Amino acid sequence: MQLDHEVPLDALNQFPAGQSFAFTVNAGRAKGWSGSTAMDGAKVSVSYDDGATWTSAKVQRKDGNSFRVKLRHPKLADTNGFVTLRTEAWDSAGNRTVQTITRAYALK
Q1: Closest of 22, 104, 15, 101 to residue 57, by C-alpha
Q2: Where residue 47 sits, what CATH number does that domain have?
């Protein structure tokens, strides 16, 4: 499984701290995969201290392999200035992938 994050950031890869934030995660298969591309579920966690602590984000299904993620970033002073994302996706056959993106984007 391959994960793609559609994250609406500014030209400097930043988003305002202390605000609600939403983005889409698409879970797909490599070219040539002959089975179903549908995912059974996904989970997203965020960290504001490079992975020392994690908070679960709200995840809602968009379609068979896409999920909408919603969260609210804390105030900038309560973070290290960056957001780390950990995304898990799985299918009905028990296949699972976990991807962690350290400092995926900055807060401003």
Answers
A1: 22
A2: 2.60.40.10
